[in-house]
Write a structure and sequence with these properties.
Layout: E1 10-12, E2 15-19, E3 27-32, E4 53-55, E5 60-65, E6 70-76, E7 82-86, E8 91-96, E9 102-107, E10 113-118, E11 123-128, E12 137-142, E13 146-152, E14 158-167, E15 173-182, E16 187-192, E17 202-208, E18 211-216, E19 221-226
Antiparallel strand pairs: 1-6, 2-3, 3-19, 4-5, 5-6, 7-8, 9-10, 10-11, 11-12, 13-14, 14-15, 15-16, 17-18, 18-19
């Protein structure tokens, strides 16, 4: 894949802040997407803390420039497979194929395995990179809804999963949640995200500097949840 780190388009954005009471993350704000752009499906930060980088519905990856307060075009996505890229040899290896609605992935802190979600299958797979189980996959956890992206938490060994649960009470609607799990498949926390995302599917929950960045195909902003200082 060619190097597509090209900064060509600049998009003006606004920061909106809302305070939500009765929540572990009461401070909610929005990083507005460029005009006509929707669906920030992923949120990630680079090793230097730059970002967030977000993928949008037209296949592009945009990067937030915190100095200019704008999104800039960064790259393009290649969905539906779990791939490994070697920056030295520049070779791409397919690790898993045929993943129905694949999301993630998230590599463990010790780089021994990678987690990948299956949206349709309502589960998360664990693919081993090293050890006696290397190059094999297993079901880590089955879920009550449709999981999207998986992101490492700032706590070693923990991960945030964007989950969309269809509720039928009192009416049929989508109730998005952020799930915090560990590498053993244990559920550590369930964070309701109906505020700001009622009847909307979320794609990613990314933790950075004790804040949670929320992305959704159904919105034109990146949600930011912050704890009480």
């Amino acid at each position: 894949m060619a190097n597509l780190i090209v900064f060509m388009f600049f998009f003006c954005s606004l920061l909106l802040v809302v305070v939500v009471s009765g929540n572990a993350y009461p401070f909610f704000s929005k990083i507005q997407m460029p005009p006509g752009v929707t669906g920030p499906e992923s949120a990630a930060f680079d090793a230097a803390g730059g970002g967030p980088y977000v993928s949008v519905t037209d296949g592009r990856v945009l990067k937030w420039d915190s100095t200019l307060k704008v999104f800039v075009e960064f790259a393009y996505t290649a969905p539906n497979r779990l791939l490994k890229y070697d920056p030295v040899t520049k070779q791409v290896t397919v690790l898993l194929r045929g993943l129905a609605g694949a999301g993630g992935p998230a590599v463990s802190f010790d780089r021994s395995f990678v987690l990948v979600s299956e949206y349709v299958g309502k589960r998360i797979q664990k693919f081993w990179l090293t050890g006696v189980k290397a190059n094999t996959a297993e079901i880590l956890i089955n879920l009550p809804g449709n999981p999207n992206k998986i992101k490492r938490s700032e706590t070693e060994g923990e991960y945030w999963v964007a989950l969309n649960v269809i509720s039928q009470q009192p009416i049929l609607f989508t109730a998005p949640q952020g799930l915090r799990i560990n590498g053993l498949g244990m559920l550590l926390e369930t964070l309701p995200l109906v505020t700001g995302y009622f009847n909307a599917s979320i794609a990613v929950v990314q933790e950075h500097n004790l804040a949670l960045y929320i992305g959704s195909r159904d919105t034109d902003f990146v949600g930011v949840l912050k704890k009480v200082p």
